[in-house]
Amino acid sequence: MCTVSFIARKNGYALAMNRDESIMRVQGLPPRKIQMGDRTVIGPSEPAGGTWIMLNDSGAAFALINWYSVAANAAGRWITRGKVVSAVCNCNEGNSVAKALKKLPLGRINPFRLIGIFPAENKIIEWCWNLKRLISKSHRWEARQWISSGFDEYTAQKFRNQTFRKALQQRSSCSLNWLRRLHRSHLPHAGPFSICMHRDGSETVSYTEISISFDRAAIRYHFGAPCQGHTFHTSSLQIQR
User: Fold this and answer.
1) Which end of the chain is less enclosed by CB atoms within 10 A, N or C?
2) What is the pLDDT of residue 127?
3) How far is CA 64 from each of CA 52, 166, 173, 191, rounded to the nearest angstrom?
């Protein structure tokens, strides 16, 4: 269960992600820089490894959400979906991502949707794994939102998209403060369908924000639900075109 929002900006973009999990799940670690080949990558992570969102010094970012609309699960011993972003996070264009994904043992990974943002080309590419095929979709370089929910994905998409589209009509739309307000929204009310999600045993457990402008990038990470404030762990990167 997660919500990812993308905003195209002049000479860059902003990307925000609410991570929704069981309140019993071990807390994620704040962003840290890692050298992978000729790229510096940065993002939060699970204590045991793997991640759900990552940025590299080309300005490319990757976010992964579970695909609950595909009801089936992988056969045999599963491999965590958190390994998917780790496998592609040093890529700076779509072809290299596709090659990296095909090297993974996809048959042991449950359904997912991987969002790739490539500012050098103003491209958004989404890879969808349904246990049978890996399908890629290209999206326009414009405001967009992706939603997953293990509770009721169809209804969550309906209500959260309504909140997103209504918010886009505001005069302050696309600013970072606007994005933060959006991701702490409880419309239509605090519950399983609000962007800042709350239900018995599960809630939004973290907020991650990536902003790119010219040759600078920042990633900000907040432990806990966004409605509880924004005390950020912040790191920055110099973009290498």
Assistant:
1) C
2) 98
3) 5, 25, 24, 22
